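Hello, quick one for you while I still have it in my head. My current little project is about how a certain protein chain folds up. You're getting the sequence in one-letter code plus the fold written as tokens. Would you mind checking whether the tokens look sensible for this chain? Here's the protein in full, and shout if anything looks odd to you:
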Amino acid sequence: MPLYRIPHPIMAAAWQKPRAIAALALLALCACASAWAHIGPPYPIMQNRRIGPFHVEVWSNPDVGTGSFYVIIDPPKGSSITVPSDMKVQVIVQPVSKRLPPATYGAWREKLLDHVEFKTLVPFDKEETWHIRILFASSTASGEADTDVPVTPTLLGRWNLLLFLLPFAGIGVLWFKAASVRHTRKRRARARTQRSGVVQ
């Protein structure tokens, strides 16, 4: 198959139009910017915990810089119990090494229809294992749950620059191939024109 025959219509347009290639480069830049700020989805750090009659799960994305915590509170299935409106949730973090004192962060209740969820953002200054405590307090139920969590770097260390540049390298290869195809087409067209002139 010749280089200029690309099945996907978007890629075919990008192959033939420099402006479209520039748009693809901008799209890659936006995608990389999102990846730069965050790598990987949240994952569960606590499951099947009980706080009074409620089931509790905690999901987190504990990155160096800013980590996120999502505290999900579910009432028992089949019961008429609901999560009280005055429920307060706090997240307390401290390095396991205890090089820093405990720091407390309040969580806000998200406006969701299908479940009750609290969210908070926590700053982490160093890649290490941190002790996480979740405090629950309301007029009908209170308690706490805790676990240790490894805080990881947001980026991939020395490889982050390479990964960041890969999409641009691909766009560059695409650009040069498209330029080469256009140059070859023009040269063949000139050759055909010259041969036609000679024949006439």
